[in-house]
Amino acid sequence: MAKEKAVFYHAGCPVCVAAEQQVARALDPARYEVEVVHLGEARERIPEAENAGVASVPALVLAGQAFHVNFGASMADVKG
Amino acid sequence: MAKEKAVFYHAGCPVCVAAEQQVARALDPARYEVEVVHLGEARERIPEAENAGVASVPALVLAGQAFHVNFGASMADVKG
Q1: Whether B67 and A19 lie within 8 Å, measured CB to CB
Q2: In B, which residues are within 8 Å of A28 by CB distance?
Q3: Do A27 and B29 touch (CB under 8 A)?
Q4: Nearest CA-CA partner of B70 in A42, A40, A62, A77
Q5: Interface predicted TM-score of the whole assembly (ipTM), two decimals
Q6: Which of A66, B66, B69, B77 is buried deepest, with most CB atoms within 10 A?
Q7: Per the CB < 8 Å rule, is A22 touching B69?
Q8: Is the pTM of this model over 0.90?
Protein backbone atom coordinates (compact mmCIF):
# COMPACT_ATOMS: atom_id res chain seq x y z
CA MET A 1 0.00 0.00 0.00
CA ALA A 2 1.39 3.40 -0.94
CA LYS A 3 1.82 5.73 1.97
CA GLU A 4 -0.31 8.80 2.17
CA LYS A 5 1.50 12.07 2.38
CA ALA A 6 1.05 14.22 5.47
CA VAL A 7 2.56 17.67 5.64
CA PHE A 8 3.10 19.44 8.94
CA TYR A 9 3.57 23.19 8.51
CA HIS A 10 5.08 25.21 11.31
CA ALA A 11 7.08 28.35 11.96
CA GLY A 12 9.37 27.33 14.78
CA CYS A 13 7.15 28.72 17.54
CA PRO A 14 6.88 26.90 20.91
CA VAL A 15 3.29 25.86 20.15
CA CYS A 16 4.55 24.50 16.82
CA VAL A 17 7.33 22.46 18.41
CA ALA A 18 4.98 20.85 20.93
CA ALA A 19 2.53 19.94 18.17
CA GLU A 20 5.29 18.57 15.98
CA GLN A 21 6.71 16.39 18.71
CA GLN A 22 3.37 15.11 19.95
CA VAL A 23 1.01 15.09 16.98
CA ALA A 24 3.06 14.94 13.78
CA ARG A 25 5.42 12.33 15.25
CA ALA A 26 2.48 10.30 16.56
CA LEU A 27 1.13 9.52 13.09
CA ASP A 28 1.35 5.94 11.93
CA PRO A 29 4.60 5.61 9.95
CA ALA A 30 3.20 2.55 8.21
CA ARG A 31 0.47 4.64 6.61
CA TYR A 32 1.85 8.17 6.46
CA GLU A 33 4.95 9.76 5.09
CA VAL A 34 5.25 12.88 7.21
CA GLU A 35 7.03 15.92 5.87
CA VAL A 36 7.79 18.78 8.25
CA VAL A 37 7.95 22.21 6.61
CA HIS A 38 9.24 25.30 8.44
CA LEU A 39 7.48 28.13 6.62
CA GLY A 40 9.84 30.73 8.08
CA GLU A 41 12.70 29.02 6.27
CA ALA A 42 10.89 27.59 3.24
CA ARG A 43 8.97 30.73 2.40
CA GLU A 44 8.42 29.58 -1.18
CA ARG A 45 6.03 26.96 0.21
CA ILE A 46 3.69 29.50 1.82
CA PRO A 47 1.36 29.58 -1.25
CA GLU A 48 1.13 25.78 -1.25
CA ALA A 49 0.15 25.84 2.44
CA GLU A 50 -2.44 28.55 1.86
CA ASN A 51 -3.88 26.64 -1.09
CA ALA A 52 -4.33 23.63 1.20
CA GLY A 53 -6.37 25.81 3.54
CA VAL A 54 -3.72 26.52 6.17
CA ALA A 55 -4.73 29.73 7.98
CA SER A 56 -2.41 29.43 10.98
CA VAL A 57 0.49 27.33 12.17
CA PRO A 58 1.04 24.70 13.36
CA ALA A 59 -1.15 22.84 10.89
CA LEU A 60 -1.27 19.35 9.53
CA VAL A 61 -2.50 18.66 6.02
CA LEU A 62 -3.85 15.13 5.69
CA ALA A 63 -5.62 13.87 2.57
CA GLY A 64 -5.89 17.43 1.31
CA GLN A 65 -7.58 18.69 4.47
CA ALA A 66 -5.97 21.26 6.76
CA PHE A 67 -6.10 20.61 10.50
CA HIS A 68 -4.98 23.51 12.63
CA VAL A 69 -3.42 22.23 15.83
CA ASN A 70 -3.72 24.79 18.62
CA PHE A 71 -2.63 28.27 17.58
CA GLY A 72 0.92 29.45 17.20
CA ALA A 73 0.81 32.18 14.58
CA SER A 74 -1.44 33.33 11.77
CA MET A 75 -0.29 33.03 8.17
CA ALA A 76 -0.27 36.84 8.09
CA ASP A 77 2.33 36.76 10.88
CA VAL A 78 4.30 34.06 9.09
CA LYS A 79 4.36 36.19 5.95
CA GLY A 80 5.47 39.16 8.06
CA MET B 1 6.57 -1.22 25.26
CA ALA B 2 3.34 -0.10 26.90
CA LYS B 3 1.13 1.95 24.67
CA GLU B 4 0.55 5.56 25.47
CA LYS B 5 -3.01 6.64 25.93
CA ALA B 6 -4.47 9.20 23.55
CA VAL B 7 -7.95 10.58 24.13
CA PHE B 8 -9.88 12.27 21.36
CA TYR B 9 -12.74 14.40 22.69
CA HIS B 10 -15.51 15.47 20.38
CA ALA B 11 -19.17 16.42 20.35
CA GLY B 12 -20.44 14.90 17.15
CA CYS B 13 -20.05 18.08 15.08
CA PRO B 14 -18.98 17.88 11.41
CA VAL B 15 -15.59 19.42 12.24
CA CYS B 16 -15.22 16.78 14.95
CA VAL B 17 -16.01 13.90 12.60
CA ALA B 18 -13.46 15.06 10.02
CA ALA B 19 -10.79 15.40 12.70
CA GLU B 20 -11.63 12.01 14.15
CA GLN B 21 -11.44 10.26 10.81
CA GLN B 22 -8.28 11.97 9.65
CA VAL B 23 -6.24 12.81 12.73
CA ALA B 24 -7.30 10.48 15.54
CA ARG B 25 -7.38 7.46 13.23
CA ALA B 26 -3.99 8.41 11.75
CA LEU B 27 -2.12 7.90 15.02
CA ASP B 28 0.28 5.01 15.18
CA PRO B 29 -1.65 2.05 16.66
CA ALA B 30 1.64 0.47 17.69
CA ARG B 31 2.36 3.34 20.06
CA TYR B 32 -1.03 4.77 20.98
CA GLU B 33 -4.21 3.41 22.37
CA VAL B 34 -6.78 5.87 21.10
CA GLU B 35 -10.01 6.38 22.99
CA VAL B 36 -12.76 8.44 21.36
CA VAL B 37 -15.05 10.24 23.80
CA HIS B 38 -18.28 11.95 22.72
CA LEU B 39 -18.76 14.61 25.38
CA GLY B 40 -22.38 15.16 24.41
CA GLU B 41 -23.09 11.56 25.39
CA ALA B 42 -20.50 11.03 28.12
CA ARG B 43 -21.16 14.27 29.96
CA GLU B 44 -19.59 12.92 33.14
CA ARG B 45 -16.23 13.12 31.38
CA ILE B 46 -16.44 16.88 30.75
CA PRO B 47 -14.49 17.73 33.96
CA GLU B 48 -11.73 15.29 32.98
CA ALA B 49 -11.44 16.96 29.57
CA GLU B 50 -11.37 20.42 31.11
CA ASN B 51 -8.71 19.33 33.59
CA ALA B 52 -6.58 18.18 30.66
CA GLY B 53 -6.83 21.68 29.20
CA VAL B 54 -9.50 21.04 26.59
CA ALA B 55 -11.16 24.38 25.78
CA SER B 56 -12.95 23.38 22.58
CA VAL B 57 -13.72 20.28 20.58
CA PRO B 58 -12.45 18.42 18.70
CA ALA B 59 -9.35 18.00 20.83
CA LEU B 60 -6.73 15.34 21.23
CA VAL B 61 -5.00 14.79 24.57
CA LEU B 62 -1.59 13.21 24.11
CA ALA B 63 0.88 12.75 26.96
CA GLY B 64 -1.22 15.05 29.13
CA GLN B 65 -1.18 17.87 26.59
CA ALA B 66 -4.34 19.13 24.88
CA PHE B 67 -4.18 19.75 21.16
CA HIS B 68 -7.21 21.52 19.73
CA VAL B 69 -7.81 20.41 16.16
CA ASN B 70 -9.62 23.11 14.19
CA PHE B 71 -12.67 24.45 15.97
CA GLY B 72 -16.02 22.72 16.26
CA ALA B 73 -17.52 24.00 19.50
CA SER B 74 -16.39 25.59 22.74
CA MET B 75 -16.63 23.66 25.99
CA ALA B 76 -19.23 26.24 27.05
CA ASP B 77 -21.36 25.14 24.08
CA VAL B 78 -20.76 21.49 24.89
CA LYS B 79 -21.91 22.09 28.45
CA GLY B 80 -24.96 23.92 27.08
Answers
A1: yes
A2: 26-30
A3: no
A4: A62
A5: 0.92
A6: B69
A7: no
A8: yes
